[in-house]
Amino acid sequence: MELSIVLPARNEEQTLAACLASLAAQSEPGFELGREWEIVVVNDDSADRTREIAAEIAASHAGVTLIDAPPLDGQLNGKNNACWAGAQTSRGRWLLFTDADTIHEPGDLRRALSEAEQHQVAMLSYSPRQTVTGFWQRAVMPLIFAELTAVYPPALVSDPKSSVAAANGQFLMVERDAYFAIGGHRAQGTNVLEDVALARAIKHSRPIRFRYAPDALATRMYRSTSAMIEGWTKNLALLMPRPVWLAAWRALEFALFFALPLLVIFEPRFALWLLLPWALLLWHFYARVAKSGFPAIDIAISILGAPLFVSMMIRSAIAHRLRRSVTWKGRSYPAGR
After folding, report:
1. What is the mean pLDDT of residues 10-36?
2. Per-residue pLDDT at 116 exceeds 80
3. Do 262 and 278 form a contact (C-beta atoms < 8 A)?
4. What residues does CATH 3.90.550.10 cover in the chain?
């Protein structure tokens, strides 16, 4: 079998059906679901209709299998436990780990397999097109993805000579032998940044490829502002090399953004000396955020999201460095890894 899709799902009744429909629609002559590829849905102790929805789809589609994740024993967190269970059940030469909140474009799977083989990589990961709703998501998400692009430039991640490694768990396709050689998700234990860790482990010996892929899939990561805050609190301090320093710099940037024009009102004699650095600040800010790949209107309002971004960064640093615990989907995990 060419490809196995492993889909961990915990309380995903709002998104699972659409995700599975977009995946099942990839079946075509020569690439038929149940023959050349399969889907393994792993129910991760869901308390809603996730399991029921998955069971209905599995009953009507050959090649879709539903399993239940084993009970947690403290050695693995929920996602690593579910992904490892799915990987052990899978049969494909390639394993694709994807999330229930993704929607895959037609032909996505075949193109991804061709891309991995064309570039001769052991892992291919995509950063999806982000679907955001509400003011705060639209203002904050471009800031976060701009920072991620700066820390993990796709060109460096894909360069075998560079030590920079990254992956996105929303679309992480890895060659089976390479995956099991590094211990897969089991080796990540309670690590909440398992996708990046897997990429680092594989890049030690095999090439990887990572890119922004709006042509391949889309995702709506969070359904509310509170979910966004919880999700990024879990990850930001681990993703950014110096989160406290970054928060302080972005807070200063926000203050200067509004303070310099105000000073011109009170000190018009120094207008040139004040507006010149303000224009440079403006240019640097929007040039950076434009690399996030978000729509222009979201980029335009992103400066207003800076205070929330700073607070999330500090919140994440406190959770990982002081409290040593993070919460996600009703579960608490040890932090700092």
Report:
1. 96
2. yes
3. no
4. 3-128+168-222
Give the Cα separation of 67 and 35 in Å (integer). 19
Alpha helices in 39-106 (DSSP H): 50-60, 78-89
Q: Which residues of 18-40 are buried (b: 16+ CB within 10 A; e: fewer)?
A: ebbebbbebbeeebebeebbbbb
Give DSSP secondary structure letters for 311-335: HHHHHHHHIIIII-EEEETTEEEE-
Q: Exposed, middle or buried by CB within 10 Å (0-12, 13-18, 19+), for 330? A: exposed
Mean pLDDT value of segment 116-131? 97
Token pair, residue 200, equals 């680092």
Strand 217-219 vs strand 102-104: parallel, antiparallel, or unpaired?
A: antiparallel
Helix then strand then coil, % of the chain, to nearest 5: 55, 15, 30
The encoded tokens of residue 317 equal 């640093």
Q: Residue with structure tokens 């460095």?
A: 321
| CA angle in degrees (0–180, nearest 5) for 153-197-162 | 40
| pLDDT for residue 216 is more than 60 | yes
Fold classification of 3-128+168-222 is Spore Coat Polysaccharide Biosynthesis Protein SpsA; Chain A (3.90.550)
